Model the fold of this input.
Amino acid sequence: MAAAPGTAPRTRGRPRSDLRIALLFIAPASVGYVAFYLMPALRGLWFSFTDQNLIGTGDFIGTANYERMFGDDLFWNALWVTVQYVLINIGVQMVLAIAVAVLLHRLTRSVVIRGIVLLPYLVANVVVALVWFWMSDYSIGIVNVVLEEIGLDRVAFFGNPATAIATIALINVWRFLGYTALLLFAGLQMIPQQYYEAAALDGASEWRMFWRITLPLLRPVLALVLVISVVGSFQIFDTVAVTTEGGPVNATRVIYYYIYQQAFERFDLGYASAIAVFLVVLLAGIAYFQLKIMRSDRSDLA
Amino acid sequence: MSTTHLVDVEPTSSDRPNGEPTPRARRRPSWGRVLAWAVLIAVMIVTLFPFYWMLRTALSNNNALYADPGSLLPVDPTWGGFRRVFGLASAEEAAAEGGTTGSIHFWLYLRNSVIVATVITAGQVLFSSMAAYAFARLHWKGRDTVFFLFLTALMIPPIFVQLPNFILIRDLGLLNTLAGVILPFFFMTPFAVFFMRQFLLGIPREIEEAAMIDGAGHGRIFFGVLLPMSSTPLVTLSLLTYITAWGEYFWPLLVGRADEARVLTVALGVFRAQTPQTGPDWAGLMAGALIAALPVLILFVVFGRRFVQNLGYSGIK
Done:
């Protein structure tokens, strides 16, 4: 990450190694890091090679969990459902977020408006899920009432395997749109205003400026926000857990929910850990690949 | 793949702000600007409507909802939903309004949520800031390696470590205690360390050096000089941490199912699962959802301005 900062000239005359005081300062955080990140990561890796359950301890069983995983149709289904979710969620969310960010940037400096746009992000996933679950209720949800009012058919948003995962993806677009838009908005603010002024003098249209100035200069920020969003999106769980619980007929059994079920409904922590290891590798790969193709480390502003 | 996707779809949404770009032309409203405002207002309406609908439903009589599902105002207004959620309604009263008759203790869950989110925020922000100071300002061997190790944790999906963490909390005998719900988030998150380090790096060195010449030690410099200067990022980070802790569902679902350690998110999940498939207690559910949403919304009204202005810092830099 950011190259060794703070290597500025040292205060003269001091024999400088702050090791002891530094250890003091990082001690509490290190306890947390070792106990709840480092150790469990190693332990999780170990679990994936055992038949660990919820109550006792497990025995080493080699790569049996992984072999089982590759032959498990429900696992592949979960992966596929998750990918569908991510594509819909991220596709819609990023396009809308860029649009909202640009609108905010070009129209207003109002903090209140930005605050309003951010509101859904403040609400817990569970609350968001329940509100939309209610609003999309087949018989008396307001969305279906309106659909019928304007002459369309009612939709069983959560009850139909064809629409369930898209519904969940769009609900979470609602929750994260404002947050993503404000992150991009912050990126837009870093673009020097003179570029727009110069372009305007040359008679460039707003449309052209968007493509020639905004998007290229926003790219590093966009790449980072995209990576964070995609990695986060793969971890969809809450919405599924309180609405469809994986149904109807596996249509929303996302990978996180599948891991959860293996661990806490089937008590098969070993197998659940193997899938989690797979998820770690997958997400690291996706993040690496995305940053690579979007060359986020090189800014056109430099 | 996302790149091409963006490129394909973007036109429709972004050629709307086709107003005049330069500040000097801003005074003259154009069709492009009017259209752009219309879109922005539409976004705000879609953003706000579900909040209103929560309130409208929570204040309705659950039985009456079925008769008039499209009413914009509460149907047959009543406090019944809130009374049920707080366990104030008698069984007959609840039944009369078509509400759940099970006992729900939202006071307890609300208290639990407040304790959990507050303790996590206090611990995490303090300890992460201290670590950030060591990473940003102190010179010691291995600093960058340790920092890199901290950062890699950022890329790990939580579920991977939470499975073993469950076993750890079980072995510590902390299942179904608030301590068990709090502990994994109490000491640090990689994000919080990263965030504070980034801010501390930006503070001019001269300030510390001046304090040092005055004989201040690192403790004094950190607590007496740097932290007070960092109030804006501290508010931003604290609010972000609070929002996350308050909304966390997965971990408390694993270790805090019992009543005494149940937080609001888990309670809502249970409430929803218990409500019958036919004729759910929507009014009660929305009353509960509103209670779960309100505290953070209030915090946001109080601290929101600085938070909104500094969000870019948090998410990206």
